[in-house]
Amino acid sequence: MGEDDVPLDDKAKRMRDLLSSFYSPDHPNSTSMSPKATSRFATLDTINTTSFDADQYMNLLVQKSNLEGLLQRHVEMAAEIKNLDTDLQMLVYENYNKFVSATDTIKRMNNNIVGMETNMEQLLEKIMSVQSRSDGVNTSLFEKREHIEKLHRTRNLLRKVQFIYDLPARLAKCIKSEAYADAVKYYTGAMPIFKAYGDSSFQECKRASEEAVAIIIKALQGKVFSDSESIQARAEAVMLLKQLDFPVNNLKVQLFKKLEEFLVDLHLESKEIRHSSSDLGGIPLSPSSCAHEASIREFAEAVRAYRVIFPDSEQQLFRLAKSLATKHFEATQQYIKKQLASADLVGMLRVTWTHVLLMDEVLPEAGLRDFTFEAAHVAIKQYVASRFSHLLLDFSGTLVKVHDNQKGVIEEEYPLQVALEISKNALVQGSMDALLDFRRLLDENLEVLSALTDLIIDWVQEGFQDFFRKLNDQFLVLSGKKYSANQDLIFGEGDKVLPGLVLLLAQLSVFIEQNAITRISEEISSLSGGGSRGHDNGPAFIPAEICRIFQSAGEELLQHYISLKTRKILILLKKRFTTPNWVKHKEPREVHMFIDLLLQELDTILNEVKQILPEGLHRKHRRTDSNGSNTSSRSNPLRDDKLVRSNTQKARSQLLESHLAKLFKQKMEIFTKVEHTQESVVTAIIKLFLKSLQEFVRLQTFNRSGFQQIQLDIHFLKTTLKDTAEDEAAVDFLLDEVIVAAAERCLDPIPLESAILDRLTQAKLAKNSEQSPAS
Amino acid sequence: MQGGSTGIGYGLKYQARCIADVKADTDHTSFLTGTLSLKEENEVHLIRLSSAGTELICEGLFSHPNEIWDLASCPFDQRIFSTVFSSGETYGAAIWQIPELYGQLNSPQLEKIAALDAHSSKIKCTLWWPTGRHDKLVSIDEQNLFLWSFDTSKKNAQVQSQESAGVLHSLSGGAWDPHDYNALALTCESSVQLWDLRTMKKTNSIDHPHVRNLDYNVKRKFMLVTAEDESGIHIWDLRMLKFPVLELPGHAHWTWTVKCNPEYEDLILSAGTDSAVNLWRASPPSGDKPSSESFDSPNRPVDPLLNSYSDYEDSVYGLAWSYREPWIFASLSYDGRVVVESTKPHLPRK
């Protein structure tokens, strides 16, 4: 630090030199202190330091203290000095003793050392003589010792030779006593010698012992293969064989093959068991399966042994165990394909599981459980899927049967009703059976299954969802509404579809929507045990959606039925209106034949509808009560009006228009929504028919007779349709409309007198009633 | 019934079946209608939509000798149109010209330019060459198809070629392909027949019975729309005739007629005997698979039925899109009421 400050002016440097000479040179730090600092720090405490300056101290003391203080300080200091003096004296006395004793000790040491030199010389001499003596002894004994050692070596060699000569005999003895381990030990001991000298001196010996060893090997091999031996013994045997340089791998392969063969045999067996168990009516734990289990246990034992014997063969064994499980599942899958009852499936799974557990004990590292879980996962999923496809197949089979029955002439009174009941039952029963099966799966206390419970429930729900969707598709295909991509279905084109079947499907859809779905969803919700755990993953069974689908399907199918029927009637109508020349029509004599045909058609419709659809009485009342009566009362006078005067003037026709306008306030009533009741359907068909009739009439031009014919036909229809149609007002209105249309399209619209109309109608009715009992 | 009328009405004196857009009139949106009255004197009305679009004005009223069963306007001359008429047992078809000075005359007479008088059975309809100045005309009767060459200046029409479809088929109508002027689709009892006018031969047919009316999609090639008695509306791809591409529910009773919009490719209008006009948007699936998913409306993102105009008091037989303002259509119900509606509120925003 001082050096750093070198570049200072001379004055400062001199000052510092002075200071450093004043203070002791040992304290360069203190020298560097500025004088100001020294004076400042020169307090009264410096008395105890090395750099104590008495004069400075005195000055300081005088400066700082007053007289009293000084006096007191004086007294104190005197006392302190006295104390220090006594302390010094004490120190001198104490250390004096020590000095004295040290002096004594040194004196004594000097005395002792004097005699030592001579003693040491004597000792050296003696040791020298001992050494020379011992050398003498050594040289005299050397020769003998050499000899003895030579003799000893020879003896060892001889003993070895003796051992080798004795080896065959010894081995034979070992074979006799089955002490193969010793034999092997001996043989391996002799091996190096045989290797070195086997071709020359010990040829005989070598051959003999090799023969013996061959016997041993054979014996050992036998031991390895014999199942009766303990595993330990067999493992030992393998070890010995290994020591004898025997190709153990061959053995290993052979043994493994044996295991594999066992597995194959086992599965043949297991299949038989399946058969017998299913023959027994699905009781899986028959005595034969117990035997089967025993054999598996045996197999497991064998595997365990093999594993102990060949510890490096684990991978192979794992494979083997896995193949066992796979085989089980393959068999299961085959059975699943053959529409297996769930009890059987459970049985099979149980057997599989017990086997797997057995194997798992033996080979815990094989991960057989996980493997099984996975396989079971797949198998059960497959099972659920196949169950549903079977369900669909069964059900459509029922429908096909219905279809075929319809095709053929059936004498039954209510074929459709019967068919409906059958298919209803088939559906519900089928679904319930399926659910029962699944429930059985779920109730089973098997570890594999309980792990999959949630998944199974999900699958079942999905399955139902899918099933109903497919069913809907199938309905549409069956009804010819949907063009199925694969026309290999029994039902070909849309025109061949039987209306009865369509009606049946419609009603079935309603049944599904209103009844079956609720029942199934109840069952399903009871499956999941009230817990919602099945619902949070994946799309589950959504009854509302299915209901919606089937509701619309039901409506569509019903509509389709109506349109099918209407199409038939339309053909009738078309023929009726295109064949005759209406402008040259002859005077009407009776109600036209087509009315008969029409009524006949209506009868068949009625018959079909009555079998399947429920009655809906309440609607009829309401309709007639509310507006029916006043419509008919309005339309009737109009018709009379119109018929009498329509051919007169323009003004009249304008009046008619306004009337028509008023009338058509009701027009929305004509095409109302069709309901699933007998009346509603029949009425809808009649309405459509009448509307078509009106349209056909509008396309023609009539002469007076033609018009009158139409009038007569309608009059007749009026009396007959009254009973069948539900919406009387609308039907009446439409009938009037037909007559109005005919009048409009007539060149000379003069109506028949009502008396004649009545007479002809009566005649027709009489004729009909005459015919019907006759036929 | 609900909502009240949104359209502009116009009343004919008598019942009527046919209405046609006057395509050649590029200045106004106008329509031609003809009445169907057995006993009174029939009329042809030329109706024009006022420029504000709020009123239908009768531009011309001409008497027509017989009741009119079909009416078609010439695509290149607004004053020329053709009618199919009958009265009692007589029938005929003729090309008419509206007299030039009809504004001044009190009761102007239509000038009959040419009579299409080669037919031997009941004539069903006449079809003009779809667009442009081609003086070709097709007339269809129950069994035969006639191709006429029509000369405006000489005012006569000659049969260019003719072919019989066979007695059994009983043709009922047809449509001219706007994409291929040699192709024609005819409706008959049991099928839709596709004809080539060059060879005058049937090239193909769709076996689909009871087709009442059909129309080509003007914007999309190979798309044909048919209307049936019961089963509604079907859309066909002419390259795949086996199954319809799309099916629409149609009407509560017969679907009488369908018309494709000349501008908006998916817009279809249908009229039916249930006294309603339905506006559909039918986008056929782009894939080849014939889809009948129109049944399962839950699967469809949109309802194909855009609107149902039900404010009619009788069956609607006449229907025509305006070519000038393609969002406007005119409909004609049997009681003689013309209603012009704008479909604008239902059109997709562009």
TrEMBL record, chain A:
Coiled-coil portions: 106-133
Region (Disordered): 617-644
Signal sequence, start to end: none
Protein name: Vacuolar protein sorting-associated protein 51 homolog
BP GO annotations: endocytic recycling; Golgi organization; Golgi vesicle transport; lipid transport; lysosomal transport; protein transport; retrograde transport, endosome to Golgi
Record note on quaternary structure: Component of the Golgi-associated retrograde protein (GARP) complex.
Matches recorded under InterPro entries: Vps51 (IPR014812)
GO cellular component, one term: GARP complex
Record's compositionally biased regions (Polar residues): 626-636
Superkingdom to which the source organism belongs: Eukaryota
Role, per record: Acts as component of the GARP complex that is involved in retrograde transport from early and late endosomes to the trans-Golgi network (TGN).
Subcellular location: Golgi apparatus, trans-Golgi network
Record key words, sorted: Coiled coil, Golgi apparatus, Lipid transport, Protein transport, Transport
Lineage: Eukaryota, Viridiplantae, Streptophyta, Embryophyta, Tracheophyta
UniProt cross-references to Pfam families, sorted A to Z: VPS51_Exo84_N (PF08700)
Family: Belongs to the VPS51 family.
From TrEMBL, chain B:
Gene Ontology biological process terms, A to Z: protein ubiquitination
PROSITE patterns with a match to the protein in the record: WD_REPEATS_2
Entries under InterPro entries matching the protein: Beta-prop_EIPR1-like, EIPR1, WD40/YVTN_repeat-like_dom_sf, WD40_repeat_dom_sf, WD40_rpt
WD repeats: 248-280
Residue span, EIPR1-like beta-propeller domain: 5-280
Keyword Phosphoprotein: no
Keywords: Repeat, WD repeat
Keyword rRNA-binding: no
Region listing for Disordered, in residue ranges: 281-300
PANTHER family found in the cross-reference section: EARP AND GARP COMPLEX-INTERACTING PROTEIN 1, WD-REPEAT PROTEIN
Family: Belongs to the WD repeat EIPR1 family.
Protein's recorded name: Wd repeat-containing protein dwa2
Origin species: Nicotiana attenuata
